[in-house]
TrEMBL record:
Residues 1-76, 520-546 are annotated as: Disordered. This is Cationic amino acid transporter 3-like. It holds the Pfam family AA_permease_C. Its main location: membrane. Residues 21-31 have a biased composition (Basic residues). It is found in: Endomembrane system. Keywords: Amino-acid transport, Glycoprotein, Membrane, Transmembrane, Transmembrane helix, Transport. GO terms for molecular function: amino acid transmembrane transporter activity. It comes from Thamnophis sirtalis. One of its GO terms (cellular component) is plasma membrane. The lineage of its organism: Eukaryota, Metazoa, Chordata, Craniata, Vertebrata. Residues 1-11 have a biased composition (Polar residues). It comes from the Eukaryota. Residues 466-516 form the Cationic amino acid transporter C-terminal domain.
Amino acid sequence: MLVINNSQEGAESQLGYSCRKGPHPPKHNRASRTEWHEATGARRAQKRGFNLPGLFLPSGGKLKTRRPSPPFPPRSNHRRRSFLLWLPGLLSFGVSESALVNKIFTAINLLVLSFVIVAGFVKGDVKNWNLSAEDCQNRTETLLESGQKVRFGNGGFFPFGFQGVLAGAATCFYAFVGFDCIATTGEEARNPQRSIPISIIISLIICFVAYFGVSASLTLMVPYFLVDKESPLPDAFKVVGWEPARYVVAIGSLCALSTSLLGSMFPMPRVIYAMAEDGLLFRFLFRVHARTKTPLVATVVSGIIAALMAFLFELKDLVNLMSIGTLLAYSLVAICVLILRYQPELFRFSKDLEMLEINGSEEEKMTINSTVGDGQNAFKEKFSCRSLFFPAEDNPTHVSGRIVYISTTAVAVTITALCGILAHEWEALLEGSVGWVIACVILLGILLAGTAVIWRQPESKTRLTFKVPGLPLLPLFSILVNIYLMMQLDAGTWARFAVWMAIGFAIYFGYGLQHSEEGQGAQQSPSAADKGLPSAHSELSQELAI
């Protein structure tokens, strides 16, 4: 449900841009920096040979290493890093060629997944999901005698309780990375308004079925605490007497790795291209190859950076970084959807006005003209405490939009503090610690008050092909769950993530902010200028000046 919710919010925010602005993804927003890091991290982790079953460990989802890691990854992984370097060349040939290769690999993936799922359910034993702690201990006596540490919790279907499920989910959330690739590459779709939301939902359902099926079949064949972390599926088929099946798994693994890499690398150059076009990144990344019509420089640079980072970091670090980056990106998407839904039409960018003036229906044009005309008086509205719960207008105004903006920020900060307490002081809360209980009550009060203020503000009545339902509760619930999962990650991941974001902010504030065309408001809609209408940027500047 959380993933579907995030996909809906991502579809709306990305779709609104793809349908109105043409071929490029959003340029000037806070999520762009996170997406840039996120897509690069995805390629790093996938290139390192990531596999989901290896994450289902008896440590509550936390990855363990068998021996201390060397300063750099083993030399045997260098071939896998070299494998990454041919993909930018393939993507540079164009969309059609890349799509053909991806279709072939995907077809093989589906066949192998179907084989693994069916074979696992045929050879599996449901008793492996209902083992008691005594059964687990009896079946691990050999391992215990050899000195290996085996943790099997309390047995049963949830051997490590709800906290173990959440700890594993924070890392395994990585499995659903990439749905935003569909929206980012909306330029290739003929009817993005319809195809993007449908594609996102269908792809997530397919991913869920595939991961659920493989994980279920694996744990049915082999008890969860005996799953081999290095080669889970081949070892499982060996246990049940189907050792030749490992060759099928090997073919599927190779194709799955190639498909994942292609899927991650395909949208990344387009994100870099769009940001470089606006000035958020260096201008040389904006170059397009004359024959293939692809962002060649951005493709090559992103591929080299991914290979370099794969050489420097271990798989565990990449997976955790990807998880925290993805959860943050999903939270930002939910926040953006919540804010934008309550903003007046006055705050459309000038390019949005231009696109609707050219391609919009007569009804939409009349709505735009009336909204812009009324916008001259909108800035004269003054804030009052009554407007928090009883707004003066039925349509969004600059006052109601600002109220939602401030309330959403306060709610997000409150949720972060509340999730930090729930994640790290849960035992103290269960013991009845007065201080933590009072803190939670105060934070819950602020959260409910902020939600009520947002709920009372007028919502935009703009007709869109796809809208996130259940505002403001659904986006707020998404933010709550995402941040709580982020709090489940260890301190080392947060430290690396802080450095990661510091580099992004340094580029943004050191270069992008000064060179961004959107940020400077240098462009004005020709259609708006011809009609004597104020541009969105000029209106926004006036409002901020007030």
